[in-house]
Amino acid sequence: MKILVLGSGAREHAIILALRAEGSAHEILCAPGNAGIAQDATLVEVDPMDGSAVRAFADEHGVDLVVIGPEAPLVAGVADVVREHGIPVFGPGRAAAQLEGSKAFAKRIMEAASVPTGRAVRAATAAEVEAAFDDLGAPYVVKADGLAAGKGVIVTDDREAALAHAQHYLPHGPVLIEEFLTGPEVSLFFLSDGDTVRALSPAQDFKRAFDGDEGPNTGGMGAYSPLPWLAEQFGSEAAFVEEVTRTVALPVVKQLDSEGTPFIGLLYAGLILTPAGVRVIEFNARFGDPETQVVLPRLRTPLSQLLLAAATGTLEDQPQPEFSDEVAITVVLASEGYPEAPQTGRPIEGLAEAAAVEGVGIVHAATAGPDAPGGNLIATGGRVLNVVATGSGFADARARAYEALGRIRLDGAHHRTDIAARVAE
Ligand code: AMP
Ligand code: GLY
């Protein structure tokens, strides 16, 4: 197959590595990609935000499948333009992508589909925010409505900080004040063709910047999969996945279909397992980053087959995706100052030595160069690299990942040292 992947981060690199792992049967193109992706796919020049340009490119080059990685082109309606032209696209159209693009839209769909989620109040003024705080109590959860690259949510006991956060976003529209939910978080991905869904293996993301879940929220500092502790609460991972499929994924997909806006792509359910049961905290309309980096290396079913089936409405003919018994962890290496003010443009060294550690792969999130032979690879963003390690157990995979990280040099870089530490005990 000729596959065009849109995006430039570690998620897209992980998708491309999974497609590559199937063998040499595919020609893989990526726009715009990064320095790591350039080693595994052909970078092409087409603006991922311009639907007409993507459609024209796919047409001209005989692309069989377009895979849209990030949320921005989805919310901008790029999938609609390409799909209308008859080209298979993995990624929802503008309307269904509102599940991620608008927290208020997501709440409405969940209500209509009776999906369990936290109680939330829409507040359009500071007075309404204060009233909602009084009503729901501390800790306070404030969510900006639109896309905010992981920065739109604050969870805090500090009422003043919560109010300041709300006031920052209020000029752009109402915010959601949500009931505080407590329990472990799980990210569960579903492939959807608009009608049928197929679940992938669960993962857990580490959203806070520093060890011990301290510091600001980030796009994600690490992840691991599978989640062995799910079996304690649900009997087995399969039982958990079955419950979420039945109570969350299928009702949402059916609801969107009934509204004439089918969800074709990756439905990401962000869940909290509260003492009262599973609750949805967010949906995303694309693969999670960094969770994808630990889910796809464990996938045994060919990814291209699943993505194409979702894009062409034939997921029903596909088996349930199979996963290896190996575990996977990923640790994100971030630039100095991430997430507030990442320092970019610094050289990265030691990648070959890091990749030489058994079971380790390096996935690039924000890299460029070297432009000249003998030149340096440089960091171009906040989250720079993901070290991914697989192993027979978490202690094993952690040892490999951190050994590899120790071999990478990037001035001022930071990473968490406690990814999958508890589950490894
Ligand atoms: P979101 O962008 O909606 O995933 O929120 C970012 C993070 O905030 C989540 O991963 C949770 O850790 C936390 N969070 C979101 N909603 C709630 C909630 N209702 N109660 C407690 N924590 C929450
Ligand atoms: N890891 C969180 C996200 O992809 O939104």
Detailed description of the structure:
One of its GO terms (biological process) is purine nucleobase biosynthetic process. It contains 15 helices and 24 strands. By secondary structure, the protein is an alpha+beta fold. It folds into 4 domains: 89 residues, Rossmann fold (3-Layer(aba) Sandwich), CATH 3.40.50; 58 residues, ATP-grasp fold, A domain (Dna Ligase, domain 1, 2-Layer Sandwich), CATH 3.30.1490.20; 136 residues, D-amino Acid Aminotransferase, Chain A, domain 1 (2-Layer Sandwich), CATH 3.30.470; 98 residues, Phosphoribosylglycinamide synthetase, C-terminal domain (Glycinamide Ribonucleotide Synthetase, Chain A, domain 4, Alpha-Beta Complex), CATH 3.90.600.10. It has a 5-stranded parallel sheet. A 5-stranded antiparallel sheet has the order 12-15-18-23-20. It has a 4-stranded antiparallel sheet with strand order 6-9-7-8, sandwiched between helices. Strand 10 and strand 11 form a beta hairpin. Helix 7 crosses helix 8. The chain is globular and about 60 Å long. 51% of the residues are buried. Glycine binds next to loops.
